[in-house]
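Summary of Year 1 activities. Much of the first year was spent building the evaluation harness for sequence design. The harness presents a backbone, in tokenized form, and records the residue chosen at every position. We chose the following record to illustrate the format because it has been used consistently in internal testing since the harness was completed.
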């Protein structure tokens, strides 16, 4: 197939966030048997420019717009005014405005005039507003479905009111924008059943065109058992994502006290990008906060058990899959199980819902290293069968071929 792949950021195998990593696995898998043209943009996140340069110098047919902040003051202000005006006066939320660089549309128009494609694949609804080549079947992967919620109370400190007002208005723009995006595509992919059900509920007219395809990952090496620090439990997350902040706070404030009582000597290590002050303030004698690490693998190797106490949010569970791939015992919630329970194979994850039960099963694992090793072996095998790039791309290819054979529009 000739595939046009549109992504919000450059695919990056060692990226700091989940999206660059999964895009890299997707691109590598698709390129093995297809002719892929990549269109993306370069932002100011660490590693994006280097990842784009590597792709441009390799075998990938890659095209990038540059949305980094211009050096000249006049250009910076023009850009800020353009983006602020678009957010205030139009439907898109801030994420879509942020990624809607005019340079991306220019590249797409040039490609449409000179190339032919069998299918156009867009990753994340933030990229759904671009005009794609006419007559080409389209697929949108929705990375996370956001549902409307009641207006949250403003913070007590008036200094936080402007940010609160912005975030509330932006949140209420997201579901409407997503519905508009879903209607534009021939098929919509979700990573799990819950997100697929949410799409069908919020936009019933597209329910018949929603497909579930859990994402994949270039699996990390199996973590050596002799590098485990007994009693160490690990949580990993990008703290720009609200569900990760909620999980870390619940873990430190409620689960960890119960774990201390059951397993004296247990230590919690919280690792992640951009932790705010309230996460940094969780540090204690037996709670370590490590910010913005260059690589998570050493911390995975040291962990006896990996925790994913996810209570909110949808989309991908990248850190759970990374832990499974590394051969680690993982404790999570039913929400954290999403995307691992829809392929006809029971995932080797320990599931608990309340702080007390979460601490109890974690303490049991810490006191039983052989059980941790057994769960880790099963987790690695499970990840290889269902979530390695080849397995993921096989699912994607099936959806792409179905879309080409029977486009919605």
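For this record, the design step produced the sequence shown next.
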């Amino acid at each position: 197939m000739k595939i046009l792949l549109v992504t919000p950021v450059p695919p990056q195998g060692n990226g700091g966030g989940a999206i660059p990593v999964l895009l890299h696995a997707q691109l590598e898998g698709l390129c093995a048997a297809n002719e892929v043209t990549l269109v993306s943009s370069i932002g100011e996140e660490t590693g994006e420019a280097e990842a784009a340069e590597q792709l441009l110098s390799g075998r990938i047919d890659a095209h990038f717009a540059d949305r980094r902040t211009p050096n000249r003051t006049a250009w910076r202000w023009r850009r800020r005014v353009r983006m602020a005006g678009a957010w205030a006066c139009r439907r898109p939320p801030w994420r879509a405005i942020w990624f809607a660089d005019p340079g991306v549309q220019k590249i797409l128009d040039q490609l449409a005039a000179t190339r032919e494609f069998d299918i156009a694949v867009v990753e994340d609804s933030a990229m759904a507003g671009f005009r794609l080549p006419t007559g080409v079947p389209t697929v949108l992967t929705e990375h996370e479905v956001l549902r409307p919620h009641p207006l949250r109370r403003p913070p007590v400190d008036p200094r936080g009111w402007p940010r609160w007002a912005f975030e509330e208005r932006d949140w209420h723009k997201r579901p409407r924008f997503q519905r508009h995006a879903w209607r534009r595509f021939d098929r919509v992919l979700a990573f799990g059943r819950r997100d697929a059900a949410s799409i069908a509920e919020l936009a019933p007219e597209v329910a018949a065109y929603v497909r579930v395809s859990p994402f994949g990952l270039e699996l990390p090496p199996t973590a050596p058992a002799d590098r485990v620090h007994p009693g160490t439990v690990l949580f990993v997350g990008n703290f720009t994502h609200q569900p990760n902040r909620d999980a870390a706070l619940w873990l430190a404030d409620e689960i960890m006290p119960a774990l201390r009582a059951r397993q004296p000597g247990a230590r919690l290590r919280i690792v992640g990008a951009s932790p705010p002050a309230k996460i940094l303030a969780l540090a204690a004698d037996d709670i370590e906060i490590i910010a913005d690490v260059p690589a998570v693998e050493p911390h995975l190797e040291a962990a006896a058990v990996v925790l994913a106490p996810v209570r909110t949010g949808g989309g991908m569970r990248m850190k759970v899959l990374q832990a499974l791939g590394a051969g680690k015992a993982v404790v999570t919630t039913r929400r954290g199980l999403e995307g691992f329970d829809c392929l006809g194979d029971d995932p080797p994850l320990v599931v608990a819902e309340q702080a007390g039960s979460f601490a109890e099963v974690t303490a049991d694992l810490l006191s039983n290293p052989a059980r941790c090793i057994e769960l880790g072996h099963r987790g690695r095998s499970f990840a290889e069968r269902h979530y390695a790039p080849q397995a993921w791309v096989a699912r994607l290819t099936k959806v792409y071929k179905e879309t080409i054979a029977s486009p919605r529009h």
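The two ends are 20 Å apart (CA to CA). Quantitative recovery figures across the full test set are reported in Table 2.
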